[in-house]
Amino acid sequence: MYHEYIKDAIVSSLDELAKADRPIEFLTEIRKITFKIIMFIFLSCGTGPMMETMEKEYAILNHGLRAMAINLPGFAFHKALKARKKMAMIIQDVVEGRRARKANNISRERTDLMDLLMELEDENGKTLDDEEIIDIILMYLNAGYESTAHATLWATLFLNEHPEYYQKAKAEQVEILKRESSPEEGLNFKGTKQMEYLSKVIDETLRVVNVSLYGYREAATDVNISGYTIPKGWKVMMWYRGVHLNSEYYPDPKEFNPSRWNENKGKAGTFIPFGMGSRLCPGSDLTKLEISIFLHYFLLHYE
């Protein structure tokens, strides 16, 4: 559903970067690509003043999320609250516009996350109010683009540092393009499903530098962990990265080695870059798709 848009966004962005006559900050540019994609999926917005404003304000909000909670002028947290308020106002305008079109029976060409949230009902027929819709959109924006950008950065760096893996991944992409696509068409969705080695590269990247460092759980019963009792009702922080770098599960855990996934499928609970259980990240497949498409074109056409 989103493959063609993601492909076009990545190809056009890489073309623009290739024309730059100056060094570029890689992570900043990857963030722009992933933000553009997530804004299209969430709000059907890919360009224009709204996009630029949202990107600018979200950068301020994201910075404040990692700052001390000092709500005084001049501090990052205070600026983040102001940025969130501006973004909420923009999304509120979108919600009101959608409701007005619906009231006038004006249909839209495509359905995005905003439409789905507005139509959502629970078992009692209750729908989400505007504030809940805005909160979900803002929360998912962070999960939907920041982690993808960082994972793409690290995958690119690791391949650059290991020429043998780089060449193997590139050879696979050349073969896929010959077998599944045409030069004029470029990569098709079927081709992304044939990336066996590149998938291992991505999994290994997510293992070594897991972008989701930890998660929280509430103990449903008293739990004994390494001789300590966690009482029922207590909140527990689970350290995901500690699991991924445990030599008991992964030999030479700090070494980047995609080939370890030839045999090792990972024991339950030992590979959790997107969380686990009912709290598994709903955007995991989208993240892998974006990284796969980016690396496909980067490996084939750029150094």
From TrEMBL:
Keywords: Heme, Iron, Membrane, Metal-binding, Monooxygenase, Oxidoreductase, Transmembrane, Transmembrane helix. The lineage of its organism: Eukaryota, Viridiplantae, Streptophyta, Embryophyta, Tracheophyta. Belongs to the cytochrome P450 family. It is a single-pass membrane protein. It comes from the Eukaryota. GO terms for molecular function: ent-kaurenoic acid monooxygenase activity; heme binding; iron ion binding. Gene3D superfamilies: Cytochrome P450. This is Ent-kaurenoic acid oxidase 2. It is found in: Membrane. Heme binds at residue 281. One of its GO terms (cellular component) is membrane. The keyword Membrane applies. GO terms for biological process: brassinosteroid biosynthetic process; brassinosteroid homeostasis; sterol metabolic process. Its cofactor is heme. The keyword Transmembrane applies. Pfam families: p450. InterPro entries: Cyt_P450, Cyt_P450_CS, Cyt_P450_E_grp-I, Cyt_P450_sf.
